[in-house]
Amino acid sequence: MSDEQNYKAGRKPQDKESKEQKKGDNYLFVIGIDQYVNFPKLYNAVKDAKDFMALMLDRYQFKESKVFKLFDKEATADNIFSTLKQLRELIKPEDSLLVYFSGHGEYDQHLDEGYWIPYNGENGKNWTFIDFSKVKKYIRAIKSLHT
User: Containing H/E element for 18?
Assistant: First the structure.
């Protein structure tokens, strides 16, 4: 049987050169918020975020130099979007990005929109939150292999 007759899942066999991909870097962006200005305190969000970060560094191919983290007071909307912009400029097409958020969130049924609540989000004012649609726009602008 020839190679052309032995396709798997309808795909043609690839040359050895095209099978080899550039090995990219793994980036991690971790956000954890326990202490809020205008929302009830959480007790495990920062711990969960730090535990997740430690797991990625210990068991997977993540390096401390490629980890971006914002905890409590640092996790303002400005800092979160600034970090996403920085990652957009830094990450190459062969790199991968993993984003982890642990903190308060909210869903507005009337707008069909979910939100991350940053450290300085104001209760009852969803325009001070981080809407998922905006996060998706920022993430889509990052030209990574995997996000």
Answer: helix 16-19
Please report the DSSP string for 59-103 in residue order: HSS--GGGEEEEEGGG--HHHHHHHHHHHHHH--TT-EEEEEEES
Element (H, E) at 130: strand 130-131
Contact 71, 81 (CB under 8 A): no
Beta bridge partners of 112: none
**Both structure tokens of 76:** 């303002």
52-62: b (≥16 Cβ within 10 Å) or e:
bbeebeeeeeb
Q: Report CA-CA distances (Å) from 86 to 60, 115, 139, 141.
A: 23, 21, 11, 11
Tokens standing for 75?
């996790």
* pLDDT tens profile 65-116: 999 999 999 999 999 999 999 999 999 999 999 999 999 999 999 999 999 9
Closest CA to 144 of 35, 22, 51: 22
Tokens describing residue 100: 């982890």
- Contact indicator for 97, 25 with CB cutoff of 8 Å: no
Here the tokens at position 48 are 């969960």
